[in-house]
């Protein structure tokens, strides 16, 4: 499969004197985490399939600084931000798409004050726009009629008010969308945000991802749809932790669309 | 002699409002201890927020039961205050039901006041039951023990007593009107206190006047006492909710504030023309402290937030950390901030307006690092607050102090940050391998 992926870099575009339609910001998880890499590839397949002229920064990409800022290290965050902004401004980047809500939020909301002004889209928003423009076909395929619940990523939902794009895509897959008790603006965090992903949780009586996974399982859904690589990890761990491995699957919305179309 | 009641009334009114004003000025002074805020933008949106969220209670009704009950008490409170205006005029000038000349309008007004007073009574009793009999979990959390629990109940008792006095006053008045007593003009319509009439049956005119006057006086004195109670209570929200919503954030919740001091330093680092060995000028101000360890390091909006919080606990009830047994409670963050600010204020009062260091601060003495590091920055608390309070911003400022002033991040986070610094990723992967996924 991998040889079919077409992943040009910004440097290659520039060498040809061209500008891509959009920069795909892969993010650290999407680049390095084994589970998240699958999401990255699924999204690239969809972009290739829709004929989107995109590019990645490749080795010129660096952490947006989100975990540093949320951990309280404003200095490290701004160093990361300013460096990334310099790279993107040099490439005259106008439009960015990313499959990570944390990257999405940081670049969209926190880079402008440091000189980085771009149109930033979450990959579910971007896929929806491709769908609306008739560039992408989404069909139910193997998900048709299946019970599926969507876990709202905090940094897409509450942080940026986007609740509908991922749900619209799921509806296009003709799934039976069931909502958890705490959804949309009341959605419960997976437990990864605010740099919690990189540390042990503080003492308590339960892990947040277990609490959330139990809620997802209660809906009777066989697939938990996610829109964030960190939520994906937390929920996948939660499924293991609740002994539902094999019975319940955690999938990114992009992966679902790609596998429904058998890309 | 006949003016003695009017003079007493004037004295009570001036004393009540005067003492309240004195305390409110303290609140304002304390809020101003915070960092000043930049010019306020998006004014139109802010006024719209006040109309929708504060006046319109749009976020209260996200929880339908407490929302509906609150609207009853809120509308009752605002509308019945028109009656207080009449009481004040009557008290000052010795008139009785001075607005009676409005005729049918007056009848309608009094009828509305009575129905609302009854509904408020029902609402307040329901609130009391929720707190004390049903024992809703959020009212029994750790931070609610002792005074906060008492405070919540005292406010409800005040309201019950005030409403009962109001209806008693009207009931006795109606009985006197029916009796044709002097001074008690036929005015008003009494749909609720009408039902109380059997209680007054057989009483003499003198007894009825005594009851009516006593209820009238205790009612207005009660209102003044209640007004002055606000400062000592969580109940200040009935006033501060409005400015607080006005100053609430209008930017996306995911946008955390940019630290300008850091930006200046980062820009200097990136500027090739800056002399790296330059010493700061002799008269340069001391470098600004990063983040917050005490209330003075917070900004004025955050301090206004603290005074506005009425401890409803919706934030804590939605907090993923709190829900899973962690120590963090966003409500406690707000209560701690307010309590420390009050302590600082008392320090100022005791020392002629100069703060004398008391070897205490918000961090450590009130809020522990364990609470701060439990936050997932998910914004559920911010979303849940019916009056646009932002506990998350305080948590973030305190984390910034811990990391940038004290280098006191949990060790795993230090490793993460070192990775970001060296490899451009939170994990120890080489930046040169960032595109390897393509060929996996």
TrEMBL record, chain A:
It holds the Pfam family CCG. Keywords: 4Fe-4S, Iron, Iron-sulfur, Metal-binding, Oxidoreductase. It comes from the Bacteria. InterPro entries: Cys_rich_dom, HdrC_iron-sulfur_subunit. One of its GO terms (molecular function) is metal ion binding. Residues 22-107, 148-235 form the Cysteine-rich domain. GO terms for cellular component: plasma membrane. PANTHER family: IRON-SULFUR-BINDING OXIDOREDUCTASE FADF-RELATED (PTHR43255:SF1), IRON-SULFUR-BINDING OXIDOREDUCTASE FADF-RELATED-RELATED (PTHR43255). This is Fe-S oxidoreductase. It comes from Patiriisocius marinistellae. The lineage of its organism: Bacteria, Pseudomonadati, Bacteroidota, Flavobacteriia, Flavobacteriales.
TrEMBL record, chain B:
The chain crosses the membrane at residues 6-25, 68-89, 109-129, 154-172, 214-232. GO terms for molecular function: 4 iron, 4 sulfur cluster binding; metal ion binding; oxidoreductase activity. PANTHER family: IRON-SULFUR-BINDING OXIDOREDUCTASE FADF-RELATED (PTHR43255:SF1), IRON-SULFUR-BINDING OXIDOREDUCTASE FADF-RELATED-RELATED (PTHR43255). Keywords: 4Fe-4S, Iron, Iron-sulfur, Membrane, Metal-binding, Oxidoreductase, Transmembrane, Transmembrane helix. InterPro entries: 4Fe4S_Fe-S-bd, 4Fe4S_Fe_S_CS, HdrC_iron-sulfur_subunit, Helical_ferredxn, NarG-like_sf. Residues 299-331, 364-397 form the 4Fe-4S ferredoxin-type domain. This is Fe-S oxidoreductase. GO terms for cellular component: plasma membrane. Gene3D superfamilies: Alpha-helical ferredoxin, Transmembrane di-heme cytochromes, Chain C. It comes from the Bacteria. Coiled coil: none annotated.
């Amino acid at each position: 499969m991998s040889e079919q992926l077409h992943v040009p870099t910004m440097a290659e575009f520039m060498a040809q004197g061209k500008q891509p339609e959009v920069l795909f910001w892969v993010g650290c998880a999407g680049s390095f985490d084994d589970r998240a890499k699958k999401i990255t590839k699924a999204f690239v397949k969809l972009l290739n399939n829709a004929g989107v002229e995109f590019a990645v920064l490749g080795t010129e990409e660096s952490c947006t600084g989100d975990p540093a800022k949320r951990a309280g290290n404003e200095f490290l965050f701004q160093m990361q931000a300013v460096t990334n902004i310099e790279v993107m401004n040099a490439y005259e980047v106008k439009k960015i798409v990313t499959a990570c809500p944390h990257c999405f939020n940081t670049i969209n909301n926190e880079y402008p004050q440091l000189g980085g002004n771009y149109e930033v889209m979450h990959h579910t928003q971007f896929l929806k726009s491709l769908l609306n423009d008739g560039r992408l076909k989404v069909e139910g395929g193997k998900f048709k009629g299946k019970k599926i619940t969507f876990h709202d990523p905090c940094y897409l939902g509450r942080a940026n008010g986007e609740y509908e794009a991922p749900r619209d895509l799921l509806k296009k897959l003709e799934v039976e969308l069931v909502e958890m008790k705490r959804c949309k603006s009341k959605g419960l965090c997976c437990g990864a945000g605010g740099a919690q992903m990189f540390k042990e949780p503080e003492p308590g009586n339960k892990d947040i991802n277990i609490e959330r996974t139990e809620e997802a399982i209660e809906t009777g859904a066989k697939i938990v749809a996610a829109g964030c690589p960190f939520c994906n990890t937390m929920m996948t761990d939660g499924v293991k932790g609740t002994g539902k491995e094999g019975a319940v699957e955690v999938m990114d919305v992009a992966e679902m669309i790609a596998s429904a179309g058998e890309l | 002699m006949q003016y003695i009641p009017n003079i007493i009334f004037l004295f009570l009114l001036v004393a009540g409002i005067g003492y309240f004003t004195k305390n409110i000025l303290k609140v304002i002074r304390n809020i101003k201890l915070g960092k000043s805020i930049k010019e306020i933008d998006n004014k139109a949106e802010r006024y719209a927020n006040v109309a929708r969220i504060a006046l319109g209670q749009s976020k209260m009704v996200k929880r339908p039961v407490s929302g509906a009950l609150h609207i009853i008490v809120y509308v009752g409170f605002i509308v019945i205050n028109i009656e207080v205006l009449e009481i004040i005029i009557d008290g000052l000038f010795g008139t009785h039901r001075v607005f009676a000349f409005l005729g049918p309008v007056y009848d309608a007004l009094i009828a509305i006041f009575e129905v609302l007073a009854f509904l408020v009574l029902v609402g307040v009793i329901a609130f009391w039951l929720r707190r004390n009999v049903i024992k809703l979990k959020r009212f029994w959390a750790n931070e609610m023990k002792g005074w906060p629990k008492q405070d919540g109940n005292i406010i409800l008792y005040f309201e019950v007593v005030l409403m009962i006095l109001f209806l008693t006053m009207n009931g006795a008045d109606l009985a006197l009107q029916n009796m044709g007593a002097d001074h008690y003009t036929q005015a008003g319509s009494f749909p609720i206190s009408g039902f109380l009439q059997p209680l007054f049956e057989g009483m003499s005119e003198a007894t009825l006047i005594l009851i009516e006057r006593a209820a009238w006086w205790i009612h207005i004195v009660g209102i003044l006492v209640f007004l002055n109670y606000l400062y000592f209570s969580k109940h200040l929200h009935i006033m501060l909710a409005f400015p607080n919503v006005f100053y609430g954030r209008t930017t996306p919740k995911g946008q955390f504030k940019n630290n300008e001091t850091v930006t200046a330093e980062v820009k200097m680092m990136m500027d090739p023309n800056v002399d790296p060995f330059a010493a700061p000028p002799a008269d340069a101000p001391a470098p600004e402290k990063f983040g917050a360890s005490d209330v003075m390091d917070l900004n004025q909006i955050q301090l206004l937030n603290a005074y506005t919080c009425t401890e409803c606990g919706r934030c804590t009830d939605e907090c993923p950390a709190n829900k899973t047994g962690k120590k963090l409670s966003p409500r406690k963050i707000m209560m701690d901030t307010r309590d420390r600010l009050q302590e600082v204020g008392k320090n100022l009062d005791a020392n002629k307006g100069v703060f004398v260091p008391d070897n205490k601060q918000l961090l450590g003495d009130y809020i522990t690092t364990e609470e701060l590091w439990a936050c997932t920055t998910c914004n559920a608390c911010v979303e849940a607050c019916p009056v646009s309070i932002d506990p998350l911003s305080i948590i973030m400022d305190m984390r910034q102090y811990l990391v940038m002033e004290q280098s006191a991040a949990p060790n795993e986070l230090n490793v993460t940050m070192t990775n970001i610094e060296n490899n451009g990723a939170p994990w120890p992967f080489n930046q040169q391998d960032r595109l390897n996924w393509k060929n996996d």
